[in-house]
Amino acid sequence: MKNKEFPKDFLWGASTSAFQVEGGFNEERGIANSDMRHIPDGLADYKTASDHYHHVKEDVQLMKELGMKVYRFSFFWSRIMPDGENVNQNGLNFYHELIDELLANGIQPFPTLYHFEMPYALIEKYGGWKSRKCVDAYVKYARICFKEFGSKVKMWATINEQMCATAPDDMNMNLEKDPHLRQKNLYQMSYHMTLAEKIATSYFKEMVPDGKIGHVVAMQVIYPATSAPEDVLAAKNAEDEVQWSFLDLSIKGHYSHHFTKYLKDRDVYPEMNEEDLHYLKENHPDFIGVNYYASCTVRAKYPEDECTRMPPFYISDQFYVVNNEKLKPTEWMHFGIDPDGLYIGIRNLYDRYELPMIITENGMAYTDKIEEDGSINDIYRIDYLTKHINQCYKLIEEGYPLFGYCPWSFLDVVSSHEGFNKRYGLVYVDRTNRDVKSCARIKKNSFYWYKNVIKNNGFKG
Ligand code: BG6
Question: Is the CB of 51 under 6 A from ligand 1?
Answer without folding.
Answer: no
